[in-house]
Specification:
Blueprint: H1 9-15, H2 17-40, H3 45-80
Helix pairs in contact: 1-2, 2-3
């Protein structure tokens, strides 16, 4: 039976690199880009910080969901053996 530990970030990237990058790295890059864009174009900080905060929250929730889905598939594969 599989262990009850959560999969590591490295393990997620090793097994599904594209999905992991899209769900965890891309939103963070987008948030950083929006912060830089807001600074360079003199946008109100409340808008750019709000967007960055939402994108960081999305990355956290999506990565957690991705880890849970990976763990469930691993547990189902162990049960089929």
């Amino acid at each position: 039976m599989a262990s009850r530990r959560r999969p590591s970030f490295r393990e997620l990237f090793r097994t599904e690199p594209v999905t992991s990058a899209l769900l965890s790295v891309c939103p963070l890059v987008l948030a950083a880009g929006q912060l830089a864009n807001g600074y360079l174009n003199d946008l109100p900080p409340t808008i750019t910080f709000s967007f960055a905060l939402v994108m960081i929250a999305f990355a956290v929730v999506a990565t957690d969901h991705h880890a849970a889905r990976y763990r469930r598939r691993r547990l189902e594969a162990d049960l089929e053996r």
